[in-house]
Amino acid sequence: MKIVDARVIVTCPGRNFVTLKITTDEGVTGLGDATLNGREQAVVAYLREHVVPLLIGLDPHRIEDTWQYLYRGAYWRRGPVTMAAIAAVDVALWDVKAKVAGLPLYQLLGGASREGLRTYGHANGRDIPELLDSVRARLAEGHTSVRVQTGVPGLRRVYGVHSGDPVPSGDRSRSEDARPLVEDWDTAAYLRHVPTVLEAVRAEFGPELPLLHDVHHRLSPQQAARLAKSVEPYDLFWLEDCTPAENQAALRLVRQHSTTPLAIGEVFNTIHDYKTLLDEQLVDFVRSAVTHFGGITPMRKLFDYAAVNQVRTGIHGPEDISPVGMAAGLHLDLAAHNFGIQEYSGHTDATNAVFRHAYTFEGGYLHPGEAPGIGVELDEEAAAAFPYRPGYLPVNRLVDGTVHDW
Question: Which of 186, 192, 202, 373 lies at a C-alpha separation of 20 to 30 Å from 382?
Fold first, then answer.
């Protein structure tokens, strides 16, 4: 069997998605997600100009060899654009292999380790009453765990606070002049506010509901340690991205001052980004997405490395991971022994029509389904009706105008 075609398809059924479709000489096709929110066209060019020409004529079953060929062969390694492109190829090849075997992908990864995948949904509000209503809505949908985010008094726009429904990228990532939306930030106000939010949610919903909170990289190590300590009474399932973890040693300070579980890694691209964190058990959950980590092949290795250090998984699952990337993660979740929880934001009806998928969400649990491969088919005619729309992720500034982490 040989690869005879590889095409990059860009569609925007609510937000932009980049998909690689590989076709073999026996007519078997495979899909991979290459979406990099806000920088989609960079990955499109990398795939079309540099990767696709290398794929024609290769044996699609040689997945490990192809991954190493694309990673090591370029010399310039790592980085989000490179790893998203490699991920698309890797997932598409796993899709082909599983279809040839006539099995859902998780069976090729060792089979199921559980019956379904526990999820958490996003609850948010401009203030606490609106947040409580959003928590009720997520519970009504079937989620058994909830991430909680609110506006901060005195700030106009804060990460994670919108209607709670899947939102088109153009609606909240662009200002009127097509530049990135600007959010504002005040760390002191945030640190005062978060404990009051969690106290209100616990008072309303009790101690049993697992709660998560995302700091979104905005604190220094000292500030992160202070926050992690202050939220201990509210028994978080995890505190996410409490400080930019590129400086892995920074998490030592947080760990020294708090037992709050920590989740890190949605912006990481390779296992090297985790080495100190895992060797020293400085985090409790690894958060990378298959789409941004180079695919299933390296994610399996990350999960095994994490398991040795008693660290669990929490794959990134926002709206800008396409159903192709979502499905790939779910197959890996189902097989991995150290699975922790799966983020599930859902997609628009238009997105689900373009990407018809076998995975299901019932009773608060996801399952990748039993269709051969990853279980996603791309309706190219439907995709063509939604052309690419330029858009940016927001940027963040302090009150005095200084650019801050978003």
Answer: 373
